[in-house]
Task: inverse folding
């Protein structure tokens, strides 16, 4: 498994929405959208996938408009 850093996420991005986005590329093992101690989004998260699916996801999703922001 590989962990992908996903930056520039929308304020409204949830674990489920990030999971749904990356599931279009391949099976997702785990997802975590980071939040502050006050439960406010930090605009980044992590996605865990197999190495082949992770490389393909980076190619496909990097720069894509998602919830009004370009994902990095």
Result:
């Amino acid at each position: 498994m590989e962990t992908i850093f996903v930056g520039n996420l929308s304020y409204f991005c949830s674990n489920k929405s990030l999971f749904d986005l990356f599931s279009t590329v391949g099976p997702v093992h785990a997802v975590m959208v980071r939040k502050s101690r006050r439960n406010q989004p930090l605009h980044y998260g992590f996605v865990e996938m197999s190495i082949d699916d992770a490389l393909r996801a980076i190619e496909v999703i990097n720069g894509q408009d998602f919830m009004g922001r370009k994902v990095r």
The chain has a mean pLDDT of 96.
